[in-house]
C-alpha cells in the first residue's frame, strides 16, 4: 500500500501571540506534531506493517516545519514532503486544503497512492475541515471521525465512524481519505534508533512553482475567502463569585446578574 499522511506542526503552548493579519507568530515558540496526526501516522504504519508498501508524510509550513517530518521519520515514515512558499502564507481552511491537495497530487503522480490519512483536527485550528476538503478537491471518497479500522485489504478498507450518537460502518475502495480520532490506534514512541538512521534522510520541498496550478489567487491569503477580523488571547483574569441560597434565590440572582451585564 502507498499511504500518504498529512501532519502539521503546532505550538506546544496556548500562549501564542498573533500578528495584525490574525496569523500565529510561531517564531521562538516550541512546536510539536499535532497530536491527532500522531494517531493518523500510527494508523498508516500499522497498515504498512500488515500489507507492505510505504508511508509518506506531508506538511505545509515554513522551513522549520521540517522538524515535524523528522519526527515522522523517527516513528517509521519512509518519505517526507514539505510544502513551503511565502505564497502559501495566511491560508484559511479552503486555501490550506487546496494547497495540500495540490502537493498530494504531485506526490501521487510520482509514486501513486491508495489511502490518505489525516488527524481529525489540529489543536491550533479545531475546524476538522481540512481532511474532507482535501478529498473533495481530489474528488475521492472520504470518511471523517474514524475510530477503528475494521478490515483492510489491498483494494478496500472498512472503517468504524464515530457519529457521537451512533456508530457507522463504512466501506470504500481505494483511493480514498480518512480522518481519525484519538481512539483509532495508540501512537508508538519515536525511536532513537530511527532518529540516528534517518538523521540524513532527504526531506523533499515543494514550492508554488512545483504545483500544477500556477494561479496565485488560489493560495495563501489571496485564496482565502474567510478573513480574520480580530484575534486576541483569552483573558485569564477571571473573577469568581460564590452564592449561597435556595434554588429560587439563586435563579433570581443569576437573572439579575445577567440582566445587569446586558446578556439578556
UniProtKB/TrEMBL annotation:
Q: Which Pfam families match?
A: ETF (PF01012)
User: Which segments does the entry list as coiled coil?
Assistant: none
The Electron transfer flavoprotein alpha/beta-subunit N-terminal domain is annotated at: 21-215
Q: Which GO terms describe its molecular function?
A: electron transfer activity
Under what name is this protein listed? Electron transfer flavoprotein small subunit
Amino acid at each position: 500500500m502507498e499511504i500518504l499522511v498529512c501532519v502539521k506542526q503546532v505550538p506546544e503552548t496556548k500562549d501564542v501571540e498573533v500578528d495584525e493579519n490574525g496569523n500565529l507568530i510561531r517564531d521562538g515558540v516550541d512546536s510539536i506534531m499535532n497530536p491527532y496526526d500522531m494517531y493518523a501516522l500510527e494508523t498508516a504504519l500499522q497498515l504498512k506493517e500488515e500489507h507492505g508498501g510505504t508511508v509518506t508524510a506531508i506538511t505545509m509550513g515554513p522551513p522549520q516545519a521540517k522538524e515535524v517530518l523528522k519526527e515522522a521519520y523517527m516513528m517509521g515514515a519512509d518519505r517526507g514532503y514539505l510544502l513551503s512558499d511565502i505564497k502559501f502564507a495566511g491560508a484559511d481552511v479552503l486555501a490550506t486544503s487546496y494547497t495540500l491537495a495540490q502537493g498530494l497530487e504531485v506526490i501521487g503522480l510520482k509514486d501513486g497512492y491508495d489511502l490518505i490519512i489525516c488527524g481529525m483536527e489540529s489543536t491550533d485550528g479545531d475546524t476538522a475541515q481540512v481532511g474532507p476538503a482535501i478529498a473533495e478537491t481530489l474528488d475521492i471518497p472520504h470518511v471523517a471521525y474514524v475510530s477503528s479500522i475494521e478490515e483492510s485489504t489491498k483494494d478496500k478498507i472498512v472503517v468504524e465512524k464515530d457519529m457521537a450518537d451512533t456508530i457507522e460502518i463504512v466501506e470504500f475502495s481505494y483511493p480514498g481519505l480518512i480522518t481519525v480520532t484519538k481512539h483509532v490506534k495508540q501512537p508508538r514512541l519515536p525511536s532513537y534508533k530511527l532518529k540516528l538512521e534517518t538523521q540524513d534522510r532527504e526531506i523533499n520541498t515543494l514550492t508554488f512553482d512545483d504545483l500544477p496550478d500556477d494561479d496565485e489567487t488560489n493560495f495563501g491569503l489571496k485564496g482565502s475567502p474567510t478573513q480574520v477580523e480580530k484575534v486576541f488571547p483569552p483573558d485569564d483574569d477571571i473573577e469568581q463569585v460564590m452564592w449561597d441560597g435556595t434554588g429560587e434565590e439563586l435563579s433570581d440572582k443569576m437573572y439579575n446578574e445577567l440582566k445587569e451585564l446586558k446578556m439578556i
